[in-house]
């Protein structure tokens, strides 16, 4: 039963991959083979080029899709450089994944029927004349794209081969043994790194900042140097918990007798299920149950529901008013009664009622404390509501008279220190309160605000200081320290890059000059939360003993020269391998494709061309 929700998202993911492959079939067929040797390209995947023309067409198609999805928001986003770059990266990655899957599918040699290729060509509107296939038009087209008939057939076979490969995985539990092992290798892979730290703070004191530099920075950024508008607020916080009440035994007894139906247990039923894909399979199981075979044993062996099958089909106790439609249809009302076959999302269920717990009336002693709490809570709410209504009424009569209302309701206010939008006191940090405090149009008189969490506020803006620009003298020292750090960060970055360039050539002059050393090795896995994990696992495998270095900057502006020291696999036990295999076979299709593509990326040589496209 639980698998259905997962499969819906899987199909969407695979449709996206398949959609771009079919789209690419059209585009590459039309565009990629004219002037192939001279055309610009955006990337080369294992020697196979992705042409600039193909990329531009795909990019435009993606833009049209975004327009339909985003509507008016698209035109604002389309001016955003990050959004444009994200779209660029998405289209390019999809095209690369497309080629990787094509290349992989061709190695598997899935059988593509020649009749299917023939039928596709004969039914294409591209080659029709008078609504019939025209041979001359077909060969004219091949001439225009510099392809022979044989080359064109092979191209279509290549595309259909990939489509067939994806459909095979999507529509079945087909998983190659090789891919099972590849996934295990990906999950078990560890990468050992060593780090040397360059902290910009250590270079700050050597930085020199002239008066002209600091003033120039102040002049260019003067709008950032001001004391913001500040506020002083007096308020009363009223909480439901402030109203403590009590009740006696007589009140509790009267409440129990008046609401006696509330104090009984709900009827519950305990069920087990067997879930299968085929109706004939369900019929054969029903026949076995009719012959008194054990329901629990069959559920463990035959049910495809991953959770209940491990418990002999048991799905636990269910209240009668919370039963699913499938269980209601079964209409079971006796212990150990078994249903007929129940359709369920293109699959089939057999349901067993194991046990019934009837509704029972609870004694007063069993619910005494609960009733006591209910009565006291109701009394507190009544008092809380009463004071709310009184303050609201007084505010309508005595608008702007904060102190008078306090006195009439015997309330004592609190007063804040000066604060601005970035330093609002925690007690007042609620959206409704912020809106009133910082709204000049309505802040001149008291407000009573009721919040959703059983508390309310009576507030008054006591005083306001207007926004004030700071002088250069006020902020000179702050600017100098800021500029020193900025210079230090840039110097550290430049130095780090020079050190890495030296290390790549085997030299360590700069590394030693600045007394750097690599710390103890650290092993990370693909799913660690380390900030550099994604970078480490995007690096290629070292070849011919060549060391791989990269530069990483953390959120504290520290720079790390990182050495990829070793790539190895942790040994998985057979039990762990079985878990992975079972995980795959439960139709987690996106995991399969993710594993295939990650493995293909690791084994492939992908070169990118820097071309101004967007």
Profile the largest sheet. 5 strands, antiparallel
The quaternary structure here is single chain
Q: What is the average per-residue confidence, as pLDDT, rounded to a whole number?
A: 83
**What is the overall shape?**
extended
In DSSP terms (H or I, runs of 4 or more residues), the helix count works out at 21
Distance N to C terminus: 47 Å
Unreliable residue runs = 1-38
How many individual β-strands? 20
Task: Report the sheet-strand fraction.
Answer: 15-25%
- Computed structural class: alpha+beta
Number of domains: 4
Helical content stands at 40-55%
Radius of gyration: 36 Å
Domain PpiC: 266-355
GO cellular component, one term: plasma membrane
Main location: membrane
Family: Belongs to the PpiD chaperone family.
Structure description:
The chain crosses the membrane at residues 12-30. It is found in: Cell inner membrane. It is a single chain. By secondary structure, the chain is of the alpha+beta class. The chain has 4 domains: 3-173, no CATH class; 188-205 and 474-573; 226-246 and 367-469, Chitinase A, domain 3, CATH 3.10.50; 265-357, Chitinase A, domain 3 (Roll), CATH 3.10.50. The strands form 6 sheets. Strands 8, 9, 10, 11 and 12 form a 5-stranded antiparallel beta sheet that branches. A hairpin with a 2-residue loop joins β11 (342-344) and β12 (347-357). α1 (3-31) crosses α2 (52-70), α4 (81-108) packs across α7 (149-170) and α10 (249-258) packs across α14 (364-397). The longest helix has 34 residues, at 364-397.
């Amino acid at each position: 039963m639980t698998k259905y929700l997962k499969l819906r998202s899987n199909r969407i993911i695979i449709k996206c991959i398949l959609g771009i492959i079919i789209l690419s079939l059209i585009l590459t067929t039309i565009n990629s083979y004219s002037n192939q040797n001279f055309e610009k390209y955006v990337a080369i995947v294992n020697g196979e080029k992705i042409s600039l023309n193909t990329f531009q067409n795909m990019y435009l198609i993606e833009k049209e899709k975004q327009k339909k999805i985003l509507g008016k928001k698209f035109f604002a986003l389309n001016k955003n450089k990050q959004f444009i770059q994200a779209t660029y990266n998405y289209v390019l990655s999809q095209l690369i994944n497309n080629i990787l899957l094509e290349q992989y599918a061709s190695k598997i040699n899935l059988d593509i029927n020649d009749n299917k290729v023939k039928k596709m060509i004969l039914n294409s509107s591209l080659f029709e004349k008078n609504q019939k296939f025209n041979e001359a038009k077909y060969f004219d087209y091949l001439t225009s794209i510099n392809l022979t008939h044989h080359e064109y057939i092979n191209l279509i076979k290549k595309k259909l081969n990939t489509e067939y490969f994806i459909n095979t995985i999507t529509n079945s539990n087909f998983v190659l043994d090789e891919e099972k092992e590849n996934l295990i290798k990906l999950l078990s892979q560890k990468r050992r790194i060593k780090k040397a730290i360059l902290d910009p703070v250590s270079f700050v004191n050597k930085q020199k900042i002239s008066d002209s530099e600091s003033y120039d920075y102040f002049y260019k950024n003067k709008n950032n140097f001001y004391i913001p508008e500040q506020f002083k607020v007096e308020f009363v916080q009223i909480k439901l918990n402030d109203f403590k009440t009590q009740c006696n035994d007589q009140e509790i007894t009267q409440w129990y007798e008046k609401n006696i139906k509330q104090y009984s247990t709900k009827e519950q039923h305990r069920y087990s299920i067997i879930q299968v894909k085929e109706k004939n399979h369900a019929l054969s199981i029903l026949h076995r149950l009719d012959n008194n075979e054990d329901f629990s044993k069959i559920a463990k062996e035959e049910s495809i529901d991953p959770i209940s099958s491990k418990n002999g089909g048991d799905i636990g106790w269910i209240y009668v008013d919370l039963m699913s439609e499938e269980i209601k249809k079964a209409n079971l009302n006796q212990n150990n009664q078994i249903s007929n076959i129940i359709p369920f999302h293109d699959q089939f269920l057999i349901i067993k009622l194991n046990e019934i717990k009837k509704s029972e009336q609870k004694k007063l002693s069993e619910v005494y404390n609960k009733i006591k709490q209910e009565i006291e809570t109701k009394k507190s709410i009544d008092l809380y509501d009463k004071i709310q209504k009184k303050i609201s009424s007084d505010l309508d009569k005595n608008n702007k008279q904060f102190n008078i209302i306090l006195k009439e309701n015997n309330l004592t206010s609190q007063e804040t220190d000066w604060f601005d939008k970035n330093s609002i006191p925690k007690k007042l940090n609620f959206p409704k309160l912020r809106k009133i405090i910082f709204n000049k149009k309505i802040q001149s008189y008291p407000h009573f605000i009721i919040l959703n969490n059983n508390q309310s506020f009576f507030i008054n803006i006591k005083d306001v200081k207007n926004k004030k620009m700071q002088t250069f003298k006020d902020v000179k020292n702050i600017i100098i320290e800021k500029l020193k750090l900025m210079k230090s960060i840039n110097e550290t970055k430049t130095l780090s890059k020079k050190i890495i360039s030296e290390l790549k050539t085997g030299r360590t002059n700069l590394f030693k000059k600045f007394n750097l050393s690599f710390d103890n090795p650290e092993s990370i896995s693909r799913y660690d939360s380390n900030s550099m994990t994604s970078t480490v696992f995007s690096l290629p495998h070292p070849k011919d003993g060549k060391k791989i270095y990269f530069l990483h900057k953390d959120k504290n502006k520290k720079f790390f020269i990182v050495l990829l020291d070793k790539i190895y696999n942790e040994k998985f036990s057979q039990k762990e391998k079985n878990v992975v295999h079972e995980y795959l076979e439960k139709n987690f299709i996106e995991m399969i494709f993710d594993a295939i593509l990650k493995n293909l990326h690791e084994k492939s040589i992908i070169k990118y061309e820097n071309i101004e496209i967007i």
